[in-house]
Specification:
single chain, mainly alpha, 3 helices, elongated
């Protein structure tokens, strides 16, 4: 089901700025580094998966907004 919703240009533009908060991004980087060294606990592995998924979803939403605006990332 495709639904089109009119949205103010400013809303779509603001979506292109979505990022992980700085502390979450730093945590993701730290976990990725430690994962490369094989030093993650089970909980840290779960945290890494969740943060990576969230980062990927934000990237996809940003890409869609950029596409709607006909801009390149």
């Amino acid at each position: 089901m495709n639904v089109t919703v009119d949205a103010p240009l400013e809303w779509v533009e603001s979506i292109t700025m979505l990022r992980l908060p700085e502390h979450a991004d730093k945590r993701l980087q730290e976990l990725m580094d430690r994962n490369n060294e094989g030093q993650l606990s089970d909980q840290e592995r779960a945290d890494l998966a969740a943060l990576a998924e969230l980062s990927e979803q934000l990237s996809l939403v940003r890409a869609e907004a950029l596409h709607l605006l006909r801009r390149k990332p």
